[in-house]
Amino acid sequence: MPELPEVETVRRGLNQLTLNQKITGGDVLLHRTIAYPVSVDDFVSEIKGSAIATWYRRGKYLLAELSCAPHAAYLGVHLRMTGQLLWLNQDEPLHKHTRVRLFFEDGWELRFVDQRTFGQMWWVPPNQAPESIITGLAKLAADPFSPEFTVDYLAQKLKNRRRPIKTALLDQSVVAGLGNIYADEALFMSGILPETMCVDLQPEQIEKLRSQIIKVLETSIAAGGTTFSNFLNVKGVNGNYGGVAWVYNRTGEPCRVCGNVIQRARLAGRSSHFCLECQR
């Protein structure tokens, strides 16, 4: 699943390519991709004629502010497990997993490709908060890059929780945007084993964990995100972080720090990667 760095990479690409360009129409090939409104015809008709003012990211959600007088509407997107937003010429052959096409002037389109079909799109009407339509937004915790994501904030979120820290970090009500890849990476960089209980973490560990979460996300964004299976940026280019990952997807390989073998274990149904020497 694309995580914060991948979604941020897509957001930045969309802001470079799509701003102030008018949506001239659309084609919904898989109706259930449109979460709101119920009618796909209404979805297309409502966004038609709008121009994209800017793209925002909230956790793993993308929000495009649509400039339409007198009040702005929004286009929401969640890539889920396998979603891709690709900026292509309309003459490009359709991928078999294409779900939605948004047409722009000068023969361009924004194409939503999604193999597993869990991705969703929303149109948020003017005068309505995005959270009222995209209900998952209201459940999000602070973004790691927001001023609210302080050491005290993270300590309060983890306080008295008798659950493994890895599981807690995957909870979007604890940290918005973090997923399996970067939770493993941040825990390695913090020297904390994934199964360590939140309640057992010391203040200095929480302080280091907060800083390493931010650091690993910044590093991955600089590398264009991670491509282990199907992530592509809006130009169809792979992310490069996977080649320098500390532990994720490196089971059986030597640790880049100490040389010990990277271990893998299942925790709450998810794979966790770690080094028993560097993480104690």
Number of strands: 11
**Biggest sheet layout:** 5 strands, mixed
Assign an overall shape.
globular
**Roughly what percent helix?**
25-40%
Structural class: alpha+beta
Overall average residue pLDDT: 95
H/E element order? HEEHEEEEEEEHHHHHEE
Helix tally? 7
Strand ordering within the main sheet: 2-9-5-4-3
Can you tell me the residue ranges where pLDDT is under 50 for at least 5 consecutive residues?
none
Strand content: 15-25%
What's the alpha carbon Rg, rounded to whole Å?
20 Å
Briefly, what is this?
This protein has helices spanning 4-17, 40-47, 130-133, 151-158, 165-169, 180-190, 203-222, and strands at 23-28, 34-36, 51-58, 61-67, 73-78, 83-89, 98-104, 108-114, 120-124, 263-267, 270-274. By secondary structure, it is an alpha+beta fold.
